[in-house]
Amino acid sequence: MDPAPLDKKSIAAYIQSLHQLTGIPLGKLQRYRTVGKLINALEHPYALELTQKQLLKVEQLNAFLQSHRVLQWGEENAKMKITSPDLAGSYFSAFLSGLRDRERFMVAFLDNSHQIIETRIISEGGIAEAPIYPRNVLKAALNCDCSSVILAHNHPSGSLKPSLEDIALTERMVAIFEPLKIDVLDHIIIGGTGYASMAQLGQVPKAAEKEATYEMITLKNQEEPEAYLPVLLCESVLDEAVMEEEWER
């Protein structure tokens, strides 16, 4: 069911609060409301032609909202178990959803019951790419004494299609962790407010297909979302119960 639209009083209160927190003129916010979604004032502030001071205020507000979502999620899921792609996607969305100005690569380290031991930001890059050093992932995994890992990163463009580099990194992580009996359960891609599971897409190998290497690999962001992705999902997604059963083994 779609949520009920906001009433005029709520919209007016939102505009007033945004004005007070950022210094963006009320008239500009009112005009922007008529040509686009008001929430985009935070996600795409450059569209409003703001001053440097106003842009800085918007960045600070976005950082606060991001931190709040993460802290709220942490309190609600302090001892969370990730036992399915949907849970993994929801979990990483709290960290990566709406992140449009840079690409961030993260890893969740899990114990043998799939409870989160720790989640770390491994690398951050620019809007189009992020350098990943596999040794850093391996070092963090050994420090956590984990049994499995879930990889995740965002595509600032909003695309949910795995790039060739995304696939190559996933295969490399499987090859690195296989001798240590550490499972790579999934690689989650966050785009906008959505997410895709490479495990559901059949792009996380069950066993190493190539020899492990440790050279840096650069994740590159897809520029345009691909319309055929839902078709791939329909063809390759495993039944949710089957996927959960595999993760629980």
TrEMBL record:
One of its GO terms (molecular function) is metal ion binding. It holds the Pfam family RadC. It comes from the Bacteria. Residues 81-204 form the MPN domain. Gene3D superfamilies: Cytidine Deaminase, domain 2. GO terms for biological process: proteolysis. Keywords: Hydrolase, Metal-binding, Metalloprotease, Protease, Zinc. Belongs to the UPF0758 family. This is DNA repair protein. It comes from Paenibacillus durus (Paenibacillus azotofixans). The lineage of its organism: Bacteria, Bacillati, Bacillota, Bacilli, Bacillales.
